[in-house]
């Protein structure tokens, strides 16, 4: 429907975009209502999309099962009952039983399993927010070069050092955030060059900027002081949660929780933004401010996640797609379900990466690439057929 302010037609929602949410219209009482175009009809929803509580009710126990198996499985198998016995002793303050199994469960595997759940939840949130922000269902932190920028910042601190802050563990997160922010800003500037906005240009800009930052990262890796440090950094860059400790959980967990709260508070605005800038503006959304806020939230969260896990691709791309099929495109439902699904996926992937081979651990990024690359090609093929 043409908008009186511009005389142009508002951009209709794409096949994967949600309809404009009428709840986003928060204009003052008495303001003219003729300037807002009627939201696109929602259309019939699938039975699964009408019951997001059912999906969450399945994913939550699945996450608990995945966490239990992640602690139980490994080179030294530990029965599930004994896993929960050890956990219960530590949670209740009882004296732990002497032996290596208590050490394996509580000090080695439990923090790693929980950190993988937190990182997976964060990647699911970032992927959902980025796809809504750029109106491209093929966007994720990895393809847009955000992860590469965060990796460059983190590696720069690890290899070159950054004073006392790096020794305390805060310098890596701050540097990863700065790298993610710089990378995303550069990609966005290239994609918006000339006043237009092309999803294809966005993806190509992300790939180009990502490779540019990856080149600098490789150069820094070669400057590492010793061969052991070089190998450790290279393994981490491919995605790794090895060596996770309880002390590493605090910052990522708090960051994911705050990001979920911030994004959930903007869920209605994300619905409107997914229908197009003109539609969102007509419904009372400050598009520029919203994108700026999303820009900071996604970059900050990506930087924190990369600082503890390295660059893990395709999780932020695939999880939102699967969750839209399950609960629909309304971000009020999509965001929490994406967080749950991302947590389940990465816990399973990390368990496979850690226990698939007897002699060595496989980087998480290798496993997600094997799963995600064919899925990306399939999604690209579907979009080409539609166009």
Task: Give a written overview of the molecule.
With 387 residues, this protein is an all-alpha fold. It has 15 helices and no strands. The chain has helices at 52-72, 80-92, 100-134, 146-160, 163-168, 170-191, 199-222, 227-237, 250-265, 267-274, 277-282, 287-309, 315-327, 331-355, 364-386. Helix 3 (100-134) crosses helix 13 (315-327). The radius of gyration is 22 Å and the shape is globular.
Share of residues in helices: 55-70%
Mean pLDDT: 80
**DSSP strand count:** 0
Instruction: Identify the overall geometry.
Output: globular
Radius of gyration: 22 Å
Distance between the termini: 22 Å
Stretches with pLDDT under 50, minimum 5 residues: 1-48, 163-169
Kindly name the structural category.
Answer: mainly alpha
Main sheet makeup: none
Order of helices and strands: HHHHHHHHHHHHHHH
Strand percentage lies at: under 5%
Tally of separate helices: 15
**Oligomeric category:** single chain
Topology:
Elements: H1 52-72, H2 80-92, H3 100-134, H4 146-160, H5 163-168, H6 170-191, H7 199-222, H8 227-237, H9 250-265, H10 267-274, H11 277-282, H12 287-309, H13 315-327, H14 331-355, H15 364-386
Helix pairs in contact: 1-3, 1-14, 3-9, 3-10, 3-12, 3-13, 3-14, 4-6, 4-7, 4-12, 6-7, 6-12, 9-12, 13-14, 14-15
List keywords for this structure.
disordered N terminus, 387 residues, mainly alpha
